[in-house]
Amino acid sequence: MKILSIESSCDETCAAVVEDGRKILSNVVASQIETHALYGGVVPEIASRAHSEAIYGVCEKALSDASLTMDDIDAVAVTNCPGLIGALLVGVNFAKSLAYAYNKPLIPVHHIKAHISAIYTVYNGEDGTKKLEPPFAALVASGGHTSLIGVDSYTDFRILGVTRDDAAGECFDKVARLLGFPYPGGAKMDAATYDGNNKAYKFSDAHVKDCPLDFSFSGLKTSAVNALHTAEQKGEEINREDFASSFTEAVVHAITSRIKILFESEGFTSKKLVIAGGVAANSHLRTALTSLCEKYGVELYLPPKKLCGDNGVMTGAQAYYEYMAVPEDKRTEAFSNLALNAYATKDCDKK
């Protein structure tokens, strides 16, 4: 089954063709980095307009790169939640138009589920790789989300832990900007940490009472911001590399400490952990989780960095399993909803 999938939840316009949820036939991403770099972050209205300009071209290229036409496509998939509402609506409306014009099933996909599902195209049982199948636990860490998810089946997800305030990626972006790293600052700050001392500055880790798997990053971010502002007011010089390294160490510890609790819990029986989302590209987090998984005998599934950020592949991978989960005689009704809407927020354990 070949699915043309569209992702436009934030600042990248993406389209891909994925076969049977596991094989990547094409993957096209139109980045808006240069545009938003002028403002030091994503401007939602500008992002929406840029999606409108790019979406036809990326879909056309995705089909061309796969050497296919719409007649060869079995279904159209699109991210419809969560994300920037204006950006999502561009993708949803374009996908609905394609599905209607070519009489194809229309499959809505949850963004968090999609991030996790990108890993299926890597560990697909081909080219010497093992085939990853549920159940497993997943960490989704990005600019808007930091969650621990229990993946019971390809379509059944449970929230195990979630951030109560800021996301890890948002904290990295904010501190990177204040340290003077050009947008997007995450990767540049990651590289700079190797020249710094991760013990030079101290940051605390906030825990949520009675919810040991939940995260809280707002206090960590605020303490870093206050430290930088105080140093500026006093005329004190901050060692940028030391500060970046110490802050990164604190964020990584906040994440790994929760995962350690998960590993030691009685309910964690799958012994498999998947990492997903933009922060999954952070080299220090990848190294720390590799060591932690080795210590506890847990299989770690890491996506390549090109599949950590937003992409159409992840949408197409999850769409296949959403489609197959519906009985064949009910698929026409289930996937022909041209009243499909977009939602800025929506839990990943609910449709």
Written description of the protein model:
By secondary structure, the chain is an alpha/beta fold. The protein has 2 domains: 145 residues, ATPase, nucleotide binding domain (Nucleotidyltransferase, domain 5, 2-Layer Sandwich), CATH 3.30.420.40; 173 residues, 2-Layer Sandwich (Nucleotidyltransferase, domain 5), CATH 3.30.420.40. It is 41% helix and 17% strand. The protein is built from 11 helices and 10 strands. The strands form 2 sheets. The protein has a 5-stranded mixed beta sheet, sandwiched between helices. A 5-stranded mixed beta sheet has the order 8-7-6-9-10, sandwiched between helices. α9 links the parallel β9 and β10. It is globular, with a radius of gyration of 20 Å. The two termini are 23 Å apart.
Helix content: 40-55%
Spans of at least 5 consecutive residues whose pLDDT stays below 50 are none
Strand order of the largest sheet: 3-2-1-4-5
Tally of helical segments: 11
Q: Which geometry do the CA atoms define? A: globular
CATH class (first level) name of the largest domain: Alpha Beta
Overall mean pLDDT: 94
Give me the CATH architecture of the largest domain, please: 2-Layer Sandwich
Proportion of residues in extended strands: 15-25%
> What Rg, in angstroms, do the CA atoms define?
20 Å
Number of strands: 10
Distance between the termini: 23 Å
What class, by secondary structure content? alpha/beta
For this structure, the CATH topology of the largest domain is Nucleotidyltransferase, domain 5
